[in-house]
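Appendix B, example 12.
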Amino acid sequence: MTIDNWQLTIDNSPPRFLRGLFSGGTLAVQALLGLQATLSPLYSNAPLRPEQALADSLHSQAHTILDLGEDEFTQGRLHPMLDNDLRLRRLRQEAADPEVGLILLDVVLGEGAHPNPASELAPAIAQVKHERAELEVVALVVGTDEDPQDVTAQCEQLTQAGAIVFRSTTDAVAYVGERLRQPYRYEHPGLPLAQFGDGLSAINVGLESFYDSLTAQGAAAIQVDWRPPAGGNEAMMSILAKIKAGNPGGKAA
Protein backbone atom coordinates (compact mmCIF):
# COMPACT_ATOMS: atom_id res chain seq x y z
CA MET A 1 0.00 0.00 0.00
CA THR A 2 1.17 3.56 -0.67
CA ILE A 3 0.23 7.08 0.22
CA ASP A 4 -1.19 8.61 -2.93
CA ASN A 5 0.72 11.26 -4.86
CA TRP A 6 -0.45 14.75 -3.91
CA GLN A 7 -0.62 17.56 -6.41
CA LEU A 8 -2.08 21.05 -6.29
CA THR A 9 -3.08 22.29 -9.73
CA ILE A 10 -1.52 25.48 -10.98
CA ASP A 11 -2.88 27.99 -13.47
CA ASN A 12 -0.95 27.53 -16.72
CA SER A 13 -2.00 30.87 -18.15
CA PRO A 14 0.72 33.49 -18.86
CA PRO A 15 2.11 35.35 -15.82
CA ARG A 16 -0.02 38.20 -14.55
CA PHE A 17 2.15 40.80 -12.89
CA LEU A 18 1.33 43.84 -10.82
CA ARG A 19 2.55 47.31 -11.65
CA GLY A 20 1.89 49.85 -8.91
CA LEU A 21 2.24 53.50 -9.95
CA PHE A 22 2.18 55.66 -6.83
CA SER A 23 2.44 59.42 -6.62
CA GLY A 24 4.22 59.30 -3.27
CA GLY A 25 6.21 57.14 -0.91
CA THR A 26 3.78 56.63 1.98
CA LEU A 27 1.20 54.65 0.03
CA ALA A 28 3.88 52.87 -2.00
CA VAL A 29 5.47 51.60 1.22
CA GLN A 30 2.09 50.54 2.59
CA ALA A 31 1.46 48.56 -0.60
CA LEU A 32 4.89 46.92 -0.35
CA LEU A 33 4.27 45.97 3.27
CA GLY A 34 0.90 44.47 2.43
CA LEU A 35 1.92 42.59 -0.70
CA GLN A 36 5.42 41.29 -0.02
CA ALA A 37 4.09 38.22 1.77
CA THR A 38 1.80 37.38 -1.16
CA LEU A 39 3.56 38.37 -4.37
CA SER A 40 7.01 37.20 -5.39
CA PRO A 41 9.31 38.42 -6.74
CA LEU A 42 8.36 41.99 -5.80
CA TYR A 43 10.53 44.97 -6.76
CA SER A 44 10.51 48.69 -6.08
CA ASN A 45 12.58 51.84 -6.48
CA ALA A 46 11.83 52.39 -2.77
CA PRO A 47 12.56 48.87 -1.48
CA LEU A 48 12.05 47.70 2.08
CA ARG A 49 14.72 45.01 1.68
CA PRO A 50 17.85 44.91 -0.52
CA GLU A 51 16.55 42.07 -2.68
CA GLN A 52 13.52 44.21 -3.63
CA ALA A 53 15.65 46.91 -5.29
CA LEU A 54 14.61 47.54 -8.88
CA ALA A 55 17.62 47.48 -11.21
CA ASP A 56 16.24 50.16 -13.54
CA SER A 57 13.39 52.41 -12.48
CA LEU A 58 12.53 53.10 -16.10
CA HIS A 59 11.75 49.43 -16.71
CA SER A 60 9.60 47.35 -14.36
CA GLN A 61 10.18 43.66 -13.75
CA ALA A 62 7.89 40.94 -12.39
CA HIS A 63 5.71 42.56 -9.69
CA THR A 64 6.82 46.18 -9.35
CA ILE A 65 5.71 49.06 -7.13
CA LEU A 66 7.01 52.47 -8.13
CA ASP A 67 7.19 55.63 -6.07
CA LEU A 68 7.01 58.23 -8.83
CA GLY A 69 7.61 60.94 -6.25
CA GLU A 70 11.25 59.88 -5.83
CA ASP A 71 13.94 62.37 -6.89
CA GLU A 72 14.85 60.30 -9.95
CA PHE A 73 11.40 61.08 -11.39
CA THR A 74 10.75 64.59 -10.08
CA GLN A 75 13.92 66.44 -11.08
CA GLY A 76 12.93 69.22 -13.43
CA ARG A 77 9.21 68.50 -13.22
CA LEU A 78 6.25 68.96 -10.89
CA HIS A 79 5.45 66.33 -8.28
CA PRO A 80 3.09 63.62 -9.64
CA MET A 81 0.42 64.68 -7.14
CA LEU A 82 0.21 67.87 -9.22
CA ASP A 83 1.23 66.69 -12.69
CA ASN A 84 -0.10 63.40 -14.10
CA ASP A 85 2.01 63.45 -17.28
CA LEU A 86 4.72 61.03 -16.10
CA ARG A 87 2.24 58.59 -14.61
CA LEU A 88 0.04 58.67 -17.72
CA ARG A 89 3.03 57.75 -19.89
CA ARG A 90 4.08 55.00 -17.48
CA LEU A 91 0.49 53.71 -17.36
CA ARG A 92 0.50 53.26 -21.13
CA GLN A 93 3.96 51.66 -21.01
CA GLU A 94 2.93 49.10 -18.39
CA ALA A 95 -0.40 48.36 -20.06
CA ALA A 96 1.43 47.48 -23.28
CA ASP A 97 3.26 44.65 -21.50
CA PRO A 98 1.21 41.46 -22.11
CA GLU A 99 2.51 39.93 -18.87
CA VAL A 100 0.95 42.71 -16.79
CA GLY A 101 -2.43 41.75 -15.41
CA LEU A 102 -3.17 44.55 -12.97
CA ILE A 103 -2.17 48.18 -12.55
CA LEU A 104 -2.60 49.86 -9.17
CA LEU A 105 -2.81 53.66 -8.91
CA ASP A 106 -3.24 56.03 -6.01
CA VAL A 107 -5.32 59.16 -6.41
CA VAL A 108 -4.57 61.59 -3.60
CA LEU A 109 -6.94 64.48 -3.03
CA GLY A 110 -6.71 67.59 -0.88
CA GLU A 111 -5.20 71.06 -0.85
CA GLY A 112 -2.03 71.18 -2.90
CA ALA A 113 -3.01 68.21 -5.08
CA HIS A 114 -4.19 68.23 -8.69
CA PRO A 115 -7.58 70.02 -8.85
CA ASN A 116 -9.22 67.19 -10.82
CA PRO A 117 -6.90 64.18 -11.22
CA ALA A 118 -9.61 61.84 -12.49
CA SER A 119 -10.24 64.14 -15.46
CA GLU A 120 -6.82 63.09 -16.79
CA LEU A 121 -6.48 59.58 -15.36
CA ALA A 122 -9.95 58.34 -16.32
CA PRO A 123 -9.56 58.78 -20.12
CA ALA A 124 -6.18 57.04 -20.01
CA ILE A 125 -7.64 54.16 -18.02
CA ALA A 126 -10.54 53.86 -20.45
CA GLN A 127 -8.10 53.77 -23.38
CA VAL A 128 -5.88 50.99 -21.98
CA LYS A 129 -8.98 49.04 -20.98
CA HIS A 130 -10.28 49.40 -24.54
CA GLU A 131 -7.01 48.06 -25.92
CA ARG A 132 -6.77 45.23 -23.36
CA ALA A 133 -10.12 44.35 -21.86
CA GLU A 134 -8.59 41.71 -19.56
CA LEU A 135 -6.29 44.25 -17.89
CA GLU A 136 -7.49 45.31 -14.44
CA VAL A 137 -6.91 48.82 -13.15
CA VAL A 138 -7.35 49.44 -9.44
CA ALA A 139 -7.55 53.00 -8.13
CA LEU A 140 -6.95 53.80 -4.47
CA VAL A 141 -8.67 57.12 -3.83
CA VAL A 142 -7.45 58.89 -0.70
CA GLY A 143 -9.50 61.88 0.37
CA THR A 144 -12.44 63.18 2.36
CA ASP A 145 -15.79 64.77 1.68
CA GLU A 146 -14.23 68.12 2.58
CA ASP A 147 -11.60 68.03 -0.18
CA PRO A 148 -12.09 70.54 -3.04
CA GLN A 149 -11.84 67.80 -5.72
CA ASP A 150 -15.17 66.19 -4.62
CA VAL A 151 -14.18 62.63 -3.71
CA THR A 152 -17.51 61.18 -4.88
CA ALA A 153 -17.15 62.71 -8.33
CA GLN A 154 -13.55 61.48 -8.56
CA CYS A 155 -14.60 57.92 -7.74
CA GLU A 156 -17.45 58.06 -10.25
CA GLN A 157 -15.17 59.21 -13.08
CA LEU A 158 -12.68 56.44 -12.39
CA THR A 159 -15.38 53.78 -12.07
CA GLN A 160 -17.00 54.82 -15.35
CA ALA A 161 -13.59 54.51 -17.03
CA GLY A 162 -13.40 50.88 -15.94
CA ALA A 163 -11.27 51.14 -12.80
CA ILE A 164 -12.02 49.22 -9.61
CA VAL A 165 -12.06 51.87 -6.89
CA PHE A 166 -11.14 51.46 -3.24
CA ARG A 167 -11.09 54.06 -0.50
CA SER A 168 -8.63 52.35 1.84
CA THR A 169 -5.14 50.96 1.31
CA THR A 170 -6.02 47.82 3.25
CA ASP A 171 -8.93 46.98 0.95
CA ALA A 172 -7.00 47.76 -2.24
CA VAL A 173 -3.98 45.69 -1.18
CA ALA A 174 -6.16 42.77 -0.07
CA TYR A 175 -7.93 42.76 -3.44
CA VAL A 176 -4.67 42.91 -5.43
CA GLY A 177 -3.07 40.18 -3.35
CA GLU A 178 -6.03 37.88 -3.80
CA ARG A 179 -6.29 38.51 -7.54
CA LEU A 180 -2.60 37.86 -8.22
CA ARG A 181 -1.82 35.26 -5.59
CA GLN A 182 0.26 32.57 -7.28
CA PRO A 183 -1.07 29.01 -7.10
CA TYR A 184 1.66 26.46 -6.61
CA ARG A 185 2.46 22.83 -7.23
CA TYR A 186 3.74 20.30 -4.73
CA GLU A 187 4.37 16.75 -5.81
CA HIS A 188 5.86 13.79 -3.98
CA PRO A 189 6.17 10.19 -5.12
CA GLY A 190 4.03 7.56 -3.43
CA LEU A 191 5.47 6.08 -0.22
CA PRO A 192 4.81 2.53 1.06
CA LEU A 193 2.99 2.69 4.37
CA ALA A 194 5.37 -0.03 5.59
CA GLN A 195 8.11 2.61 5.78
CA PHE A 196 6.29 4.11 8.73
CA GLY A 197 6.30 0.87 10.71
CA ASP A 198 3.42 -1.21 11.97
CA GLY A 199 0.31 0.39 13.33
CA LEU A 200 0.61 3.80 11.69
CA SER A 201 -1.65 6.38 13.32
CA ALA A 202 -2.02 9.91 11.99
CA ILE A 203 -3.67 13.15 12.96
CA ASN A 204 -4.52 15.10 9.83
CA VAL A 205 -5.12 18.84 10.13
CA GLY A 206 -6.89 20.62 7.30
CA LEU A 207 -7.06 18.98 3.86
CA GLU A 208 -9.42 16.03 4.22
CA SER A 209 -8.10 14.25 1.12
CA PHE A 210 -4.99 13.22 3.09
CA TYR A 211 -7.22 11.65 5.71
CA ASP A 212 -9.28 9.84 3.08
CA SER A 213 -6.12 8.44 1.45
CA LEU A 214 -4.75 7.11 4.74
CA THR A 215 -7.93 5.46 5.93
CA ALA A 216 -8.54 3.91 2.49
CA GLN A 217 -5.21 2.13 2.91
CA GLY A 218 -5.95 0.82 6.38
CA ALA A 219 -4.13 3.40 8.52
CA ALA A 220 -5.70 4.76 11.67
CA ALA A 221 -6.30 8.48 11.29
CA ILE A 222 -8.16 11.34 12.94
CA GLN A 223 -9.34 14.32 10.88
CA VAL A 224 -9.13 17.77 12.48
CA ASP A 225 -11.05 20.44 10.59
CA TRP A 226 -9.09 23.66 11.02
CA ARG A 227 -9.12 27.02 9.31
CA PRO A 228 -7.13 30.13 10.21
CA PRO A 229 -9.01 32.63 12.40
CA ALA A 230 -11.04 35.14 10.37
CA GLY A 231 -10.17 33.24 7.21
CA GLY A 232 -6.57 34.47 7.46
CA ASN A 233 -7.56 38.14 7.21
CA GLU A 234 -4.81 39.87 9.20
CA ALA A 235 -6.84 42.99 9.96
CA MET A 236 -9.76 40.94 11.31
CA MET A 237 -7.38 38.66 13.24
CA SER A 238 -5.89 41.74 14.91
CA ILE A 239 -9.36 42.95 15.91
CA LEU A 240 -10.26 39.52 17.33
CA ALA A 241 -6.98 39.43 19.28
CA LYS A 242 -7.75 42.81 20.84
CA ILE A 243 -11.26 41.66 21.77
CA LYS A 244 -9.86 38.51 23.34
CA ALA A 245 -7.19 40.48 25.24
CA GLY A 246 -9.88 42.70 26.69
CA ASN A 247 -12.08 39.72 27.57
CA PRO A 248 -9.89 37.05 29.23
CA GLY A 249 -12.86 34.74 29.68
CA GLY A 250 -12.97 34.31 25.91
CA LYS A 251 -16.70 35.07 25.64
CA ALA A 252 -18.10 37.72 23.38
CA ALA A 253 -18.95 40.94 25.12
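The CA atoms of residues 82 and 112 lie 7 Å apart. The chain has two domains: 17-180, 187-253.
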